[in-house]
Write a structure and sequence with these properties.
Layout lengths: L12 H16 L1 H17 L1 H37 L3 H28 L1 H8 L6 H13 L1 H16 L3 H25 L3 H21 L18 H39 L2 H38 L2 H28 L1 H8 L4 H14 L3 H16 L3 H27 L1 H27 L1
Helix pairs in contact: 1-8, 1-11, 2-3, 2-8, 2-9, 2-11, 3-4, 3-6, 3-7, 3-10, 3-11, 4-7, 4-10, 6-9, 7-8, 7-9, 8-9, 10-11, 10-15, 10-16, 11-12, 11-14, 11-15, 12-15, 14-17, 15-16, 15-17, 16-17
């Protein structure tokens, strides 16, 4: 459906949105594919303690993918905006600066991971039970940091360069390879957690390689600008990219921050078994976030280009379609969890009696947040696409840090373990109120 004749300013927005939707959802499922495949294979093959260890490391996945999105979405939205105004050279300057920034930060993360591994995992909540699993998985994870960062970075630019199907193929290929290697390394070869980590790195590496082929294609408009950059000039472009991409970074990081805070509280109120149950929930939440990001990013190029062209009515139409789609995705997963909690549990591991006593109620409560989660995430991306990063940042901050950070410590004082599970449903309701106020002011 998406070809080189597509016109984001003139073609029907319904047709454009549908054409971008499947490729975009497939592309944004990259985090879910890698983490979900590892979780299921590890849970079935290595047991509850192993997936608890993986959950402790999940904030690092959020950091790596989120940083790729920081420069990828931050730069690609600006690229689309410039292309909408017919300024391709200016758009490619943003691409060049974003590429360099992403490369430098990837090197920094690898060095930090190599030299400060144990202080980092200790801060994340490692215990005597989980440390061995964390060591095996985490040390290979560090080697693969550039692969994770560039998979999310490159797919953002390739998708905004009107090649969403190419991004989709790259992610699917890497994800399928990851699943196959997970099975081989865990169930056939005795590699355990090391094998699961290697499968994730190799899958992400494959995604990057396939995405790179776009740059040699006939439809490629992405070029590295080779000119003498004044330092102040470079800082100016980098600053704009960071400002516009920070909300995407915070969206991804908010998931990691929430997981970190929940892990700390659950270790206090329920021990390792609580973290194991939360692993099931957090993986499902990652799926919801990935799907809603896919919906958002299907709308994002259309909104950004039309914003550059001054087409307000088209922006509002695609906003309505995408908002309804995002909310529906979250609602469907909520209903599945409420109706089939045991099935959800058994997807991830062979449950013990202790897990079955704790998990169904946790799923029933927490899953009620998913409709609001998808809706709030979409509007954060919407404000970013229309170059209102301050509003996007506010949504991300109140949802991912302020409301959830306070409630996860406050509610358990009165409601014990139920208070932890209620944190996100209440957080999403409060965030919906913030979004409603923003939209009301925008209409005034």
């Amino acid at each position: 459906m998406m070809n080189k004749q597509v016109d984001l300013v003139k073609d029907p927005v319904e047709k454009l949105f549908i054409g971008y939707l499947l490729p975009s959802v497939s592309a944004t499922m990259v985090t879910s594919i890698y983490v979900l495949a590892d979780t299921i294979m590890i849970g079935k093959g290595l047991g509850a303690d192993a997936i608890a260890a993986l959950n402790i490391l999940l904030p690092l996945f959020s950091l790596f993918f989120g940083t790729g999105l920081l420069f990828g979405i931050g730069g690609s939205v600006l690229l689309s905006f410039c292309f909408g105004k017919g300024k391709k050279s200016e758009g490619n300057r943003y691409f060049t600066v974003a590429l360099l920034c992403n490369s430098l930060i990837a090197i920094l993360y690898v060095l930090l991971g190599e030299f400060f591994f144990y202080p980092i995992v200790t801060a994340l909540g490692s215990t005597e039970t989980t440390l061995q699993y964390i060591e095996e998985y985490g040390k290979i994870l560090v080697i693969g940091i550039p692969c994770f960062m560039f998979s999310s970075f490159l797919q953002a630019f390739v998708r905004n360069d009107k090649a969403p199907k190419h991004a989709m193929i790259a992610v699917i290929a890497g994800g399928v390879l990851n699943i196959i290697l997970d099975y081989i390394f865990i169930f056939i070869l005795p590699y355990g957690m090391k094998g699961a980590a290697a499968a994730s790195v190799l899958g992400s590496f494959t995604t990057c390689i396939i995405l790179l082929f776009h740059f040699w294609g006939e439809r490629n408009n992405l070029k590295i600008v080779k000119e003498k950059w004044k330092l102040s000039y470079f800082y100016s472009y980098a600053g704009i990219i960071l400002k516009n991409g920070f909300s995407s970074f915070l969206v991804e990081m908010s998931s990691g921050i929430i997981i970190l805070l929940f892990n700390i509280q659950l270790l206090k109120y329920a021990g390792d078994i609580g973290v194991t149950v939360y692993t099931i929930i957090s993986n499902t939440a990652i799926i919801v976030m990935s799907l809603s990001n896919g919906v958002s990013q299907a709308a994002q190029p259309i909104i950004a280009v039309n914003h550059g062209a001054g087409k307000r009515e088209r922006i509002l139409k695609v906003r309505k379609i995408a908002g309804i789609t995002a909310f529906s995705v979250g609602l469907i997963i909520t209903l599945l969890g409420i109706l089939f909690p045991k099935t959800v549990i058994e997807i991830f591991l062979h449950p013990t009696k202790e897990i079955m006593e704790l998990a169904p109620r946790a799923i029933l409560i927490y899953f009620c947040s998913f409709g609001g989660m998808a809706w709030n995430n979409f509007y954060s991306n919407y404000f970013q696409a229309v170059l209102k990063p301050a509003k996007a940042l506010i949504i991300c901050f109140v949802r991912g840090i302020a409301f959830s950070g306070v409630l996860v410590y406050l509610l358990p004082i009165f409601l014990k373990l139920d208070g932890i599970w209620l944190t996100m449903p209440i957080t999403e309701i409060l965030t919906l109120g913030v979004v409603w106020i923003m939209l009301k002011k925008e209409r005034e």
